[in-house]
Amino acid sequence: MKTVTATKKDAEEVFGVIKETVLTVYPGYYPPAVTSWFANELHGFARTAEEIAAGQIYALKGVRIFGTVCIKEDTVHGLFVLPGYERRGFGALLLRFAEKVIAANYPVARLDSSLPAEQFYLRQGYAPEGEEEAAVYGERLVWKKMAKRLRED
């Protein structure tokens, strides 16, 4: 098992990990329209392909890809682990990888936490910096802005 930069040939599999995770986990936290928006727009195939082309998505790969993380400058943009692989430390492994990448250029890692991931990020040392909200297909979507100091400058 290793973390690698996702390539164009990985796009379908990476998107499959993201979509399966969202469609399995998010319905317990969000209305159907919001879950669909996460899976098909915010983390949709076109955006995933763009992020792969930009070298921003990394994949946790064994026999198959079962986890992904997207890093944009100082921000963890998305971290997904297939439901069958959750609670085995793979999310923490991906997050530590992302923090090392970010720490090379920035003292603080930032992220927007979905409701299902909030407790995970708190356990990993992230602190809330505020809350934001938006309307998605007429539904109210709320998320936490979080940050973690990685190094002192």
Question: What features would you describe in this structure?
Answer:
The chain is built from 5 helices and 7 strands; from the N terminus they run E-H-H-H-E-E-E-H-E-H-E-E. The chain is of the alpha+beta class. The chain has a 7-stranded mixed β-sheet with strand order 1-2-3-4-5-7-6. A hairpin with a 2-residue loop joins strand 6 and strand 7 (139-149). The protein is globular, with a radius of gyration of 15 Å. The termini are far apart. The model has no long low-confidence stretch (mean pLDDT 95).
How would the blueprint of this fold be written?
Layout lengths: L1 E4 L5 H15 L6 H11 L2 H9 L3 E5 L3 E8 L2 E7 L8 H14 L4 E6 L4 H6 L3 E10 L2 E11 L4
Parallel strand pairs: 4-5
Antiparallel strand pairs: 1-2, 2-3, 3-4, 5-7, 6-7
> What summary fits the major beta sheet?
7 strands, mixed
Q: Strands of the biggest beta sheet: in what spatial order?
A: 1-2-3-4-5-7-6
How much strand content do the residues show?
25-35%
- The low-confidence runs, each spanning 5 or more residues with pLDDT under 50, are none
Count every beta strand, where a strand is a DSSP E run of 2 or more residues.
Answer: 7
The helix/strand order is EHHHEEEHEHEE
In angstroms, what separates the terminal alpha carbons? 33 Å
Q: What value does the Rg take, in angstroms?
A: 15 Å
Q: Provide a count of the helices.
A: 5
Shape: globular
Overall mean pLDDT stands at 95
Structural class assignment: alpha+beta
The residue fraction in helices comes out at 25-40%
